[in-house]
Write a structure and sequence with these properties.
single chain; 275 residues; alpha/beta; five-stranded mixed β-barrel
Length: 275
């Protein structure tokens, strides 16, 4: 049995279901410093990752490492505060395993968020960017190996981020008078930040943002038939585009400043899923 495959995901979902009885309609993965939205979840049940079969503990600063189930804007949701990065030594299958578990719980829509560096001068720190596409420069794929029951063997990735959900996000942003850009996210393995030459390469191949997560999760979500909506919180200009070196503390501080806006936006989007 694949330790991060369908059977393992079903077992983890069964364990979660004992404590979170309502099947979620929407699943949310929260990145560095973006966990504040869990405070809006009503009737919340919090499950530490160590209590979820197959989940390691989150180790990155800004990642709480817990699963939260409850109601957000009148909609049953499940949220992950923290994710598993390949730069921590995890393989791509584990990085994407939580998505399998969320789908096994019943969620058919996935909202992902991350902290990212901007490759564009017109998208500065503190910006919220709606993802329209991504480039997998991690050179790893979580679907490698025997096809898992319920997976599409060759999922179409021409539109990884659902156009209909993006339209809803734009409408909600307008209603809330929030400025939201759109862009393409480049996922790198990390954990080192980029060199100047790498930043120049990323710009030339069409990337607007760069980070170290999200891509494996989206690939598995699409293979499972989930609709995906993605956001980046721009925490800094990419290496070489700013005068000062980048620090992880800067990433956390910037996401803390913008998290309230992203929280408001996600809450408004989720409210559109009310029955």
């Amino acid at each position: 049995m694949n330790r991060y495959g369908t059977s393992a995901a079903d077992a983890a979902a069964d364990a979660i279901r004992e404590r979170v009885p309502s099947a979620p309609r929407v699943a949310i993965i929260l990145g560095s410093g973006l966990g504040g939205i869990v405070g809006d979840v009503r009737d919340a049940c919090r499950i530490p990752y160590r209590d979820v079969p197959g989940f390691p503990s989150a180790t990155v600063v800004g990642h709480a490492g817990e699963l939260i189930g409850g109601m957000l804007a009148g909609v049953p949701v499940v949220a992950l505060s923290g994710r598993f990065h390949m730069y921590e030594g995890h393989d791509a299958a584990l990085a994407a395993f939580p998505v399998r578990v969320l789908e096994a719980l019943g969620a058919k829509t996935l909202i992902v968020s991350n902290a990212a560096g901007s490759l564009r001068a017109d998208i500065g720190p503190g910006s919220i960017v709606l993802l329209r596409d991504h480039i997998n420069l991690m050179f790893r794929n979580p679907l490698t190996g025997a096809v898992e029951p319920g997976d599409e063997r060759f999922p179409d990735m021409s539109e990884p981020y659902d156009p209909g959900l993006r339209a809803i996000a734009r409408d909600v942003a307008r209603e809330q008078r929030l400025t939201v850009s759109e862009g393409t996210y480049a996922g790198l393995l990390g954990p080192s930040y980029e060199t100047r030459a790498e930043v120049e390469m990323l710009v030339r191949i069409g990337a607007d943002l760069v980070g170290m997560s999200t891509v494996p999760e989206v690939i598995v979500a699409r293979a499972r038939g989930m609709r995906v909506l993605g956001f980046s919180c721009v925490t800094n200009l990419a290496c070489g585009l700013a005068a000062a070196p980048i620090t992880h503390q800067e990433v956390i501080e910037t996401t803390a400043r913008v998290s309230a806006q992203l929280q408001q936006l996600v809450r408004g989007i989720v409210s559109k899923f009310q029955a």
